[in-house]
Design a protein that fits this description.
The chain is built from eleven helices and eight strands. The protein is an alpha/beta fold and about 300 residues long. The protein has an eight-stranded parallel sheet, with helices on both faces. GO terms for molecular function: carboxy-lyase activity; hydrolase activity.
Length: about 300
């Protein structure tokens, strides 16, 4: 079965480098990612744009918009990109210039959506500072992907990343589709309700475990841990709105896929691992068609 990994990273972030070498033990390069894709039938990935200007500064308040995939030069052909937004630069004299750069990047065919780092940046997602970004999302029919739940930095503030904040946003912006990242973990029941209630809200299952096989085995064999997520999935009962993502390099792709196969009932695997991505990210179809044409 082909797989689309809708949540990976390929940015020069110090914490990603350290996690790859010390915890997940993956080769954090484009070549390393491609090798894992090939080994696991992943035909396309979506990278979440984020940058830091100073080593270890993530979330970096000085990063210019739009934030992209800067680990290596350019976006590899087997990836698309969600352009990252730094809201700290969307106020003041430079606002229009920042928005112009965001819009110009959104017109590129390899751009699949927009990424907000709620919690990392200290704004609620329904704050008026993001209003022009949502206007652009509606104009180009692109989804907005939102970090929710625990932050991979002690400098995040959890009140801004709670999935319930997306409920108000989804109500205000019915013309835009949103994706809650990480199922809002640890507030997975709240995220499940937001997805179930709002027709324009989806969720990904990325980043729920970080590390290598021994770490995964410990959690996959702990019923309380697995039931934490299963309860939310059963309650939501909208597997057509759940998407597979790994949060690579935080975990090896094959290992993470094994985890999600254990978590999601088998009859929903094709939707979660593949088909649902086409519903949320409208540009995926064209990108995959181009890849298939090139492979002939």
């Amino acid at each position: 079965m082909p797989i689309i990994d809708i949540h990976i990273h390929l940015s020069d972030i110090d914490s990603f480098h350290r996690t790859a070498s010390d915890q997940s033990k993956v080769d954090y390069t484009a070549a390393g990612l491609k090798a894992e894709f090939d080994q696991n039938d992943v035909i396309l990935g979506i990278g979440m744009g984020v940058t830091e200007q100073t080593k270890g500064a993530f979330p970096d308040s000085g990063s210019p918009n739009p934030m992209g995939l800067d680990l290596e030069e350019g976006v590899p052909p087997f990836l698309m990109e969600c352009v990252g937004i730094n809201p700290n630069r969307l106020a003041g004299a430079q606002t229009q210039a920042e928005l112009d750069r965001i819009e110009a990047r959104m017109q590129a065919p390899e751009v699949a959506g927009i990424k907000l780092y709620a919690g990392y940046y200290h704004y609620y997602v329904h704050d008026k500072i993001y209003a022009p970004v949502y206007e652009l999302a509606a104009k180009y029919s692109l989804p907005v992907v939102i970090h929710t739940g625990d932050t991979y930095s002690m400098n995040g503030l959890l009140k801004y990343s709670h999935p319930l904040t997306v409920d108000e946003l989804a109500y205000q912006q019915r013309g835009v589709n949103f994706m809650i990242c990480h199922l809002g973990d640890p507030w997975v029941m709240d995220a499940a309700e937001v997805v179930a209630k709002n027709p324009n809200v989806y969720a990904d299952l990325s980043g729920l475990v970080v590390g290598d096989r021994p770490h995964f085995e410990r959690f996959m064999n702990e019923p309380l841990f697995m039931d934490h997520f299963r309860r939310a999935l059963v309650y939501c009962d909208h597997y057509e709105k759940m998407l597979f993502g790994t949060d690579w390099p935080l975990a090896p792709i094959g290992l993470y896929a094994e985890f999600i196969r254990r978590l999601v009932p088998e009859q929903h695997h094709e939707k979660v691992f593949y088909r649902n991505a086409f519903e949320l990210f409208p540009r995926i179809g064209q990108r995959i068609a181009e890849l298939m044409k090139e492979s002939l």
